Amino acid sequence: MTITLYSLCGADAARPFSPHCWKVVMALHHKGLAFEERPLAFTAIPTTENGFSKTVPFIRDGQELISDSFRIAQYLEEHYPDEPSLFGGQGGVAAARFVEGYSQQVVHGVVSRIALSDIHAMLAPTDQDYFRKSREERLGRTLEEVAAGRDAAIAALPAALQPLRHMLGHQPFVGGATPLFADYIVFGALQWLKITTGSIHLPADDPVSRWFDRCLDLYEGVGRAVA
């Protein structure tokens, strides 16, 4: 049975951009599982699957509905144990939780300051209204005030990625010789940046850029399919 992945898009359904959804896209390909992606606009999410979740990603696998990217990865690991492992054992699960915290607490903050106005521009009018209201309430600033600091956020990005850069001095992937779910966590953040702004705003010879290119090439280049 084909898994259904509900993800996030703007006015163009062919450009899903959520970092958390990209983690799941890569995890499903890693496991070699057949799936259908159904991108949703922000305001369509609460009306889908009888209001199962207010956020994406979530998946339907037969009768099962599972939300949250990390919980989805654990579900795939538990229910498809004969396919390639996403974690490489319980130690890998714990390490991926650390990477998740680093990505969401450090990298996402910088990426959101760079991409916020670009995301708003990608949305249909109804979703623009929702996005502006929810983000301005969350940030305590207007989108325009956040956008005024975009250049400073771009300048701050290399330092935010220094822990990843350090690791890549010793191995090609966060997972070691080959990628694991921990790679897809940080890849999702930079894929979010690339799709929404057109660039990851790093030099081509940066070790993080080279790692990102390796991730884009995985699974017949699925990461390159959305520009």
UniProtKB/TrEMBL annotation:
<dbReference type="Pfam" id="PF13417">
    <property type="entry name" value="GST_N_3"/>
</dbReference>
<dbReference type="InterPro" id="IPR036282">
    <property type="entry name" value="Glutathione-S-Trfase_C_sf"/>
</dbReference>
<feature type="domain" description="Glutathione S-transferase UstS-like C-terminal">
    <location>
        <begin position="96"/>
        <end position="215"/>
    </location>
</feature>
<feature type="domain" description="GST N-terminal">
    <location>
        <begin position="16"/>
        <end position="83"/>
    </location>
</feature>
<dbReference type="InterPro" id="IPR054416">
    <property type="entry name" value="GST_UstS-like_C"/>
</dbReference>
<dbReference type="InterPro" id="IPR004045">
    <property type="entry name" value="Glutathione_S-Trfase_N"/>
</dbReference>
<dbReference type="GO" id="GO:0016740">
    <property type="term" value="F:transferase activity"/>
</dbReference>
<dbReference type="Pfam" id="PF22041">
    <property type="entry name" value="GST_C_7"/>
</dbReference>
<dbReference type="InterPro" id="IPR036249">
    <property type="entry name" value="Thioredoxin-like_sf"/>
</dbReference>
<keyword id="KW-0808">Transferase</keyword>
<protein>
    <submittedName>
        <fullName>Glutathione S-transferase</fullName>
    </submittedName>
</protein>
